[in-house]
Write a structure and sequence with these properties.
The chain has about 150 residues and is of the alpha+beta class. It is about 35% helix and about 25% strand. The protein has a single domain, classed as PAS domain (Beta-Lactamase). It contains 5 helices and 5 strands, in the order H-H-E-E-H-H-H-E-E-E. About 30% of the residues are buried.
Length: about 150
C-alpha cells in the first residue's frame, strides 16, 4: 500500500513542479507542501541533506508536530537520538540505491512509538526525496520510548 501511495505522490509532485528548477527554494517548498498536504498517509518530503521541507496533514497529526517545527528537523532526528546513527546509515544507503521499502518506527512528539510500513524514492523531483509511511495495524498501540533520564 505504501508503494502505491508513493507513486501517487511522485506523479502529483512531478505534475506540480514539472522539474522547474528555476523556482526559489521557498517557492518550491510551498508548491510541494500544497501538493502533499491532503494525502491520507504520512507523507514526508526531504532535501538530499535529509532536511524535511514538506509534510502531509496526516503526518503532522500522526507525529504531533506543527509544519514549522517539522521543517526544522532532519529525517535522522525523526528517529530519536538512540537511532540517529543507524538512520544516517540508512539514509546514505537510500540515496545510493534511490529506493527503499520496509518497516520503520517513528516516535510521536510525546514519545509514543508508531510502527509504520514505508516506501521512499530519492530524487523524485527537483532533487527532493519522498517517503510515504502507512501506520501498521499490527503495531502495539501506546508503546512509549523510555525516558532517557530514567
Amino acid at each position: 500500500m505504501a508503494e502505491v501511495l508513493l507513486w501517487r505522490v511522485v506523479n502529483e509532485l512531478r505534475a506540480a513542479v514539472d522539474d522547474d528548477t528555476r523556482l526559489s527554494r521557498e517557492a518550491l517548498q510551498e508548491v510541494v507542501q500544497g501538493t502533499v498536504v491532503e494525502f491520507r498517509a504520512c507523507v514526508l518530503i526531504a532535501e538530499e541533506s535529509g532536511q524535511v521541507i514538506a509534510a502531509s496533514e496526516q503526518a503532522l497529526q500522526t507525529l504531533g508536530y506543527t509544519l514549522p517545527t517539522l521543517r526544522a528537523l532532519n529525517v535522522t532526528e525523526l528517529a530519536g537520538e538512540d537511532e540517529e546513527e543507524e538512520v544516517e546509515l540508512l539514509w546514505e544507503s537510500f540515496l545510493r540505491q534511490r529506493r527503499q521499502t520496509g518497516c520503520f518506527t517513528l516516535p510521536h512528539r510525546d514519545g509514543t512509538l508508531i510502527r509504520t510500513q514505508y516506501a521512499a524514492i530519492s530524487n523524485a523531483v527537483a532533487g527532493l526525496s519522498a517517503a510515504v509511511h502507512v501506520v501498521s495495524t499490527s503495531a502495539e498501540p501506546g508503546q512509549r520510548r523510555a525516558d532517557k533520564d530514567a
